[in-house]
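Re: the 384-residue chain
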Amino acid sequence: MSLAARIRALITSSPRRVDALLAVSAFLVSAVVGLRDNGDAELRAPWDVEPWAWVVLAVAAVALLRRRQHAALVFAVALVCSGVLIAQPHSQVGFAFLVSLYGAGRYAEGRAATIAVPAAAMAFAVVDAITTDSPRSDAIGGAFIVFVVWYVGRRVRHSGERSVLLERERVAQENRVIAEERARIARELHDVVAHGVSLMTVQAGAAKTVVIADPESAVQAMAAVEQTGREALSQLRHLLTVLRPDSSTGELGPQPGLAEVERLVAQFREAGLEVSLDSDPVPADLPARVDLFGYRIVQEGLTNVLKHAGAGTTAEVRVRVEPRSVTLEVSDDGRGAAQLPGSGHGLVGMRERVQLLGGTLEAAVRPGGGFRVHAVLPITEEPV
């Protein structure tokens, strides 16, 4: 870890420790550094400082411990201490004064603090230069320096507020995307369940028709009704985990599955992508939600390739079906490095689907360029 990174981590994790370090540093610097008659700094012995000046230096330093909670008050204390020490030749609390001034710009609130603090600091710099018979340029330079210190603190404050606002907007946008994606997933699961219930109705009607003439066929039809009912109940459990707004469509047909990935790949080839497909045979008894979500993940992955990498990009789709899981991988060699993992709506949707199934998703830039999405969807049999 670099020195700058360590300092940043220390400031973020231990603000009280930082304030204590600043207070000690301000006291020591003010104690051992004095001013000559011409205004230049010089080192001095501790016995050159009057006893009452030690008290003033300590008060200014200790006040810095509360610079985050009472920034304007701490600045006022440092300002008064600086004024008192004007009477002590060659003494100053410049470091504590500047730290408190930055803290006032960084942490003080209200219009009074915004106007009064820099005005008081610049006025003090001018008065200090006049009382020490310094040139006019020193007065102007001192006023400019204290204003810059206050302004830097103010800019840091505004930057932090903006970062917080942007983070809130990002979280709100991501929540909206997740809500929309959950609604779409719920509609798809609704269609799957509705299709299963429709199939159960047909099978039950067929069993009723042939129960007398062909009892064996009726038993087989009722077994199919049982199996379809179990699967429909399993889909309902997932359906209850997401929000389903009113759907404007009334389709009750089945949703696409992994068996149709080849047709999906052909559509993206027509759109300009060079896509290769390496897929295991898809079993007919694959749970409907795994089948549907797997298809949607491949679809979203190829859509992201086309959107962010552009036509002419080479992409590869792999589908591996194992007894307990389905592994999906969509990779490309395009300009996917410009798209950060997790920053697109498509990746948010993929994560939602994978989480609903209890699987894992990896989405990252490939070392040699391009992007790679790797998803593992577990195949579980849920009891009724």
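The two ends are 53 Å apart (CA to CA).
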